[in-house]
Amino acid sequence: MTPLHGALSPAERDGAIAVATLVLFAILALAVQRVAFAFLTRLATRHEDGVLAAMVRRMRGPTRFIFPLVAILAGVPAASLPAWSKTPTEQILGLCIIAAIAWLVVALVGFAADVAKRQYKLDEEDNLHARQLETRLDILSRTANTLVALVAVSAALMTFPAIRAVGATLLASAGLAGLAAGLAARPILENLVAGIQIAFTQPIRIDDVVIVESEYGRIEKITATFVVVRLWDWRRMVLPLTYFIDHPFQNWTYSKAELIGSVFLYLDYAVSVDAIRDEIPRILAGSPLWDGNVVNVALTDAKESTVEIRILVSARNSPDLFDLRCLVREKIIAFVRERYPNALPSTRIELARVPEPAGVA
User: Fold this and answer.
1) Angle between helices 10-47 and 50-75 (to 10 degrees)
2) What share of the chain is helix, strand, coil (3-state, %, to 5)?
3) CATH number, domain containing residue 329
4) CB burial string 275-305: b at 16+ within 10 A, e below
5) How far is CA 80 from the centre of its chain?
6) Domain enclosing residue 44, as ranges
7) Each residue of 33-87: pLDDT tens digit?
8) What is the enclosing helix (H) or strand (E) of 230?
9) Is 175 within 8 Å of 116 (Cβ atoms)?
């Protein structure tokens, strides 16, 4: 007797049952994962455990993939897969295992970085150590993630016999092919090495104040290949990592945030420098921007019609210093205008008396 049209053969029925069994295993594992992480999330919220919260945040995604994968691997021996499907199934499961391991390693690297960052806070006034740690962890974690991705992709490709044979052939004759690959990967390798250098030597850190390409800004983000500088007017300057190794730049917060700034005045020769020298401490004493460390008034130059007076002041950081310089400039100009108006710059014209002609009455 022949089976009716549309009926499944015994082999097809066994294959469908096997697939349904594996799908059921995956659904049950995913349900277990959801219940477990719902419990862990509530536990982390109730006890305000930052480490547990970081673990839940980092591991939620990978476990959504790993739990069903483990269930399927456990169910494959119990399922009666058809002979024709065993090789493709093993191939797919091998690729999934490689992806799961890579994803898990990336999550563990991120979790370790989160735990280490909890020791310091960037919102503190003296956050030098926090910025050092943040920069080092960000660069090293991104470098590790890049290496994990490269290894995972290489391992996945090597599971295919054809690609494995091509790889063996290239290794056997790795002359021009290796040179071409090295030239193509040169920018990636340069940025990778530059990232490792920056992570350990730290010429820049997260939230550092820098002057690059004659622009003032802060280091906002350091990735595995480029650096984002947030400029004072909210523009973003994107520079490769190698820029900070190959080019000079200014870092105003390399060792500490305190800075000294100058205010220049150009006044008439009639100015009283002692009066300005006495007035500056009174201006600074009423401002919370001044850190109390540096104040100096000196006559630094004498030009044809004016003298140059330099006022030095210090502040805790660059934004405070900019505002303090503006304040000092505003107050001292008002002081000179009100108390010593003759000291303001002026142009003198001397008219010579012309003698009257003889014979004129």
Assistant:
1) 170
2) 60, 15, 25
3) 3.30.70.100
4) ebbebbeebbeeeebbbeeebebeeeeeeee
5) 51
6) 9-118
7) 899 888 888 888 887 767 888 888 888 888 888 888 888 877 776 666 666 666 7
8) strand 226-231
9) no
